[in-house]
Design a protein that fits this description.
The complex is a heterotetramer of chains A (about 120), B (about 110), C (about 525) and D (about 160). With about 120 residues, chain A is mainly α. Chain A has helices at about 1-10, 20-40, 65-70, 75-80, 85-95, 100-119; strands at about 10-15, 20. Chain A has a domain at about 1-40. In chain A, strands 1-2 form a two-stranded antiparallel sheet. Chain B has a single domain (about 1-50, about 70-100), classed as Orthogonal Bundle (Helix Hairpins). Helix content of chain B is about 65%, strand content about 0%. In chain B, helix 1 packs antiparallel against helix 2 and helix 2 (about 25-50) packs antiparallel against helix 3 (about 70-100). The longest helix of chain B is centred in the last third of the chain and has 32 residues, at about 70-100. The radius of gyration of chain B is 19 Å and the shape is elongated. Chain D has 5 helices and no strands. The relative contact order of chain D is 0.18. Chain D has one domain. Chain D has helices at about 5-30, 35-55, 55-65, 65-90, 125-155. Classes of the chains: A mainly alpha (about 120), B mainly alpha (about 110), C mainly alpha (about 525), D mainly alpha (about 160). At the C-D interface, helix 1 of C face helix 4 of D.
């Protein structure tokens, strides 16, 4: 009996564990159900279209739609700022010049020659 | 030693071509560099086919039967044909690039337009 | 009926290449009659090819290696010379052919509406069929020189397609870069083929693999082949052409370009595992007491390339603000995962002390499976994302993320497809990417824990990359300038839908795929003697 | 690109048929002597390119259109692939099978090895050479023509 359950459960064994998407979906469905029940305990006084749904910007007026949307170049600003030293080097690497692309190829070929040919 | 001269020429041609591709700024010169590399590789294949005192691989009926290898010749021909296609394509693209950027300098092309 | 099927099956390796080639040259003639007829014709040609691929693949997975000789019946002349061109299809070739056919179907169906507003579509369809034919040729061939020829056919066709929108200077520039890079790479591959030919007097991969020794010239040939093919496969630091080419080509072309890139990766695998397979356990250097074998050496090289590829690909993707360029860098990172898995698998190859044959450790086997599974997953996931990017470009005429926003309100299907692709690329369950990445993490952990930590970290960053895209393109308030944006036409939805369905299917039933497809492929990759036996 | 002087035009029109015939000879004898479809086609195409240089791209474009050339090119490629497909139908059913050699359907191509300079030997090979030659002539000339025409446009601006 245990063997049968085992074979149904362990559809994909990886050597130290197993993975079964159907079990996963079952679990996630239960979790979603729980969330739905929890949501039912919420406050019933919510009404759409009133001032309840207006964005709260410390009392300031709401900007127009174009300005409210966070631009892609501003996302992850902190991360990019922290690793600016790294990105400077990457930018130096990606020159967009086809001669440099070939230069990288020749450099890698030389390194491989040294590793494989000499050893 | 004398039989090694073609191989030295092959390596020399490939290095010259690579140098042209890497260090020249003009797009036309880059294309010329690629063509030089290609001739180097073709010369290598032709050299492989050579046998001493051999004739061209044509069936004569009489005479010397020692022929150079036909297979590398076929390879070289195919590679030349491909080379022509690549060359034509590259030159066409250079015409287009010149129309858009008004320059053939490799450092000044290729930026995003925004 | 079964007679016809048997004949088709017998000739399928040749027909898979010949049918798209015939279609490519018929297309301009048909395009003179009617535009719609030409589109239908191209789709029909691709469907016929895929049917042939299906026949061939199902036969190869059940009956083993299939060899097809051109212009004769036996691969050998006078029982000794293998001069004839032949196609040899083992599990790995068949597997790559599946990927190529899926991408080809989706790409051709997608381009019906996507390319409608462009001119010169006769040439577009000719080139795309040529590219598909070249891709199949690269995948199926068993002859080194033939491989080079198909490589060049593919790169010429794809270069012309990358530069298809000649009114955009950047597209032409990307095409030029691609052709320079690929022709130089291909010339060095040809040089290596010449070196191998000069020593073993054969161009046939199996014959070379049978008679190869590991001398100095073979080392040079190995270096030239690996570096040339790695450049075509877009491995860091030779990847710079890839974001340009992927990002600036039309999306339907990019989809098939992914296939050609992976065909080059297939070349790397074939060279390492089959052609040099005999010498993988050869000790090349003794340091102290331990022997450093060739497999360990190549494995370490591949793993270091892989780490560079993953890190630089993902970190650069985080910075981009152009939709397609971002996905292109993410695609570079994904290539790194496959390479990592194959590197881990190669390091675990060793000689069995009892029988003297080469064996693979258990974690190496898992890594090999994960790597192979990740090839198809990467093609599907990244391909779907590119198609979504193309759909957004089609609807809004923008590809810069700074200008997009709030599109989820107008393009429901596209948003759903994007979410599927996002989850799959980042390796979130239950999509297919999760399964292969799980296998890769597990196996690389046993090689070295740091490898799998880096892999997982970069996977998280990959999720962050696509969350950024999702936020700035689909979420947010409805922008006034995109008020009139409509959902894309049906053929584009169909093209994306095909890939999305396959992704979900692979995600929900991974064991089906792993047992029936991946297992035979993993055995076929490793078994070089069977590959030799297919010819000799 | 405008036409050149009268001397060049006259010499080019005298040399054109000669080089044309030489190229066609190379195509037709491709299976007997060095050369073949591509080489002969390249000779013919360079003869056409000579005319292009001498008379100018505008004049040549008036005589022959690029789309006609592309149809010819497709026909050449179709001939090649079609001959390969015929190998599937006749004889031992192999792709690229040389089905015209050693058979009884069309005995005119059957004479392999009988006469060394006989053009009717080698089965489908001469036919394939013709197809390749057609494709190369049309393709190369179309490339040169389009390039010359394109540079004319950019100079005119």
């Amino acid at each position: 009996m245990i063997l049968i359950i085992d074979s149904i459960l362990k559809t994909l064994t990886t050597g130290s564990g197993f993975w079964n998407p159907l079990v996963w979906i079952f679990t996630i469905a239960i979790v979603l159900l729980l969330m739905y029940i929890l949501r039912g305990f919420g406050n019933k006084g919510y009404k759409e279209g009133t001032e309840q749904t207006k964005s709260f910007l410390s009392g300031n007026e709401e900007y127009e739609k174009e300005k409210m949307h966070v631009k892609a170049s501003n996302v992850y600003w902190g991360f990019l700022e922290t690793f600016r030293w790294l990105y400077k080097r990457f930018d130096k690497m990606h020159t967009g010049n086809v001669s440099d692309y070939v230069l990288w190829f020749v450099v890698i070929m030389g390194i491989l020659f040294l590793i494989i040919g000499v050893i | 030693m004398i039989y090694n001269i073609p191989y030295i020429a092959v390596v020399g041609l490939i290095l010259i071509g690579l140098a042209a591709v890497i260090f020249k700024r003009n797009l036309i010169k880059i294309v010329i560099g690629i063509t030089i590399i290609e001739s180097g590789v073709n010369l290598f294949l032709i050299t492989l086919a050579f046998r001493e005192n051999s004739t061209a691989p044509i069936y004569h009926g009489t005479g010397s039967r020692l022929m150079s290898l036909p297979v590398p010749h076929a390879l070289t021909l195919t590679s030349i044909v491909i080379g022509v296609a690549v060359l034509a394509l590259m030159l066409t693209l250079i015409i287009h690039i010149y129309r858009h950027y008004k320059t053939l300098d490799v450092r000044k092309i290729g930026g995003d337009e925004e | 009926m079964s007679d016809i099927l048997n004949t088709l099956l017998y000739h399928s390796p040749a027909l898979i290449v010949a049918v798209p080639l015939l279609g490519a040259f018929l297309t301009p003639l048909i395009g003179k009659i009617n535009d719609k007829l030409r589109n239908i014709f191209a789709i029909v040609i691709v469907l016929i090819t895929s049917f042939l691929v299906y026949l061939l693949v199902s036969d190869v997975f059940s009956n083993g290696i299939r060899t097809y000789v051109f212009g004769g019946s036996s691969p050998l002349v006078n029982n000794s010379f293998a001069v004839r061109i032949l196609f040899e299809v083992d599990g790995l070739n068949a597997f790559m052919a599946i990927i190529a056919s899926i991408l080809a179907i989706a790409g051709v169906i997608y381009s019906w509406s996507f390319m409608k507003e462009n001119t010169g579509l006769d040439k577009y369809y000719t080139l795309i069929l040529l590219m598909i034919a070249g891709m199949f040729g690269m995948i199926l061939t068993g002859d080194m020189f033939n491989f080079f020829v198909f490589l060049e056919i593919t790169s010429i066709a794809s270069c012309a397609l990358i530069a298809f929108r000649t009114n955009q200077g950047s597209a032409v520039d990307a095409g030029f870069k691609y052709i320079v890079i690929s022709s130089i790479g291909a010339l060095f591959i040809l040089f290596a083929i010449g070196i191998l030919y000069s020593q073993y007097n054969a161009l046939n991969m199996a014959v070379i693999a049978n008679s190869i020794s590991y001398g100095f010239l073979d080392k040079i040939a190995l270096v030239l082949l690996i570096s040339g093919l790695a450049m075509k496969a877009g491995i860091v630091p030779m990847h710079m052409w890839l974001p340009d080419a992927y990002g600036r080509a039309p999306s339907s072309v990019t989809l098939i370009l992914i296939g050609t890139t992976q065909a080059s990766l297939y070349g790397v695998l074939r060279v390492i595992f089959s052609i040099y397979g005999k010498h993988l356990t050869l000790p090349v250097k003794t340091i102290g007491d331990t022997n450093l074998s060739l497999s360990a050496l190549i494995g370490i090289i591949l793993i270091s390339f892989a780490l560079l590829t993953i890190l630089i690909g993902v970190l650069m993707a985080l910075k981009q603000n152009d939709f397609k360029k971002m996905i292109a860098f993410a695609a570079v990172g994904e290539i790194g995962y496959m390479l990592l898995a194959f590197g881990a698998a190669i390091t675990s190859i060793s000689t069995d002390p009892l029988t003297g044959s080469t064996i693979l450790a258990t974690h190496g086997e898992v890594a090999l499976k994960g790597g192979i599974f990740h090839i198809i997953n990467d093609a599907l996931d990244v391909g779907l994302l590119f198609l979504v990017a193309g759909a957004i470009y089609y609807a809004t005429k923008h590809s810069s993320l700074n200008k997009l926003g709030g599109l989820a309100r107008n393009m429901k299907y596209t948003t759903i497809f994007f979410i599927i692709g996002l989850l799959a690329v980042a390796g979130i369950p239950p999509m297919n990417g999760y399964v292969s990445k799980l296998l890769i993490y597990q196996s690389t952990f046993q090689v070295n824990p740091i490898l799998s930590i880096i892999a997982i970290l970069c996977s998280i960053l990959l999720l962050a990359v696509f969350v950024k895209v999702f936020h700035s393109a689909f979420l947010g308030p409805k922008l006034p300038k995109f008020k009139d944006v409509k959902e894309v036409p049906k053929s584009m939805i169909l093209g994306m839908g095909i890939i999305a369905c396959i992704i979900i299917f692979f995600g929900l039933f991974p064991n089906l795929i792993l047992d029936n497809i991946i297992d035979p492929v993993a055995r076929a990759i490793f078994d070089y003697s069977a590959y030799i036996g297919g010819v000799l | 690109m405008m036409g050149m002087s009268k001397i060049v035009k006259t010499i080019a029109s005298i040399a054109f048929p000669l080089s044309m015939i030489y190229g066609l000879y190379v195509i037709a004898h491709g299976h007997l002597t060095p050369g073949g479809g591509f080489q002969g086609g390249a000779i013919v195409a360079s003869a056409c390119a000579m005319i292009l240089v001498a008379f100018g791209s505008v004049w040549t474009m008036g005589k022959i259109k690029e789309k006609h050339l592309s149809v010819l090119e497709s026909l050449g490629a179709l001939g090649f692939i079609g001959l390969a497909f015929f190998g599937l139908i006749y004889g031992i059913n192999i792709f690229f099978n040389n089905f015209l050699v050693n058979q009884n359907v069309i005995p005119i191509f059957n004479e392999i090895g009988k006469g060394l300079a006989n053009i009717n030997t080698a089965g489908v090979l001469p036919l394939m050479n013709f197809a390749v030659g057609l494709k190369v002539i049309a393709g190369l000339f179309a490339i040169v023509l389009v390039m010359a025409y394109a540079t004319r446009l950019s100079e005119g601006k």
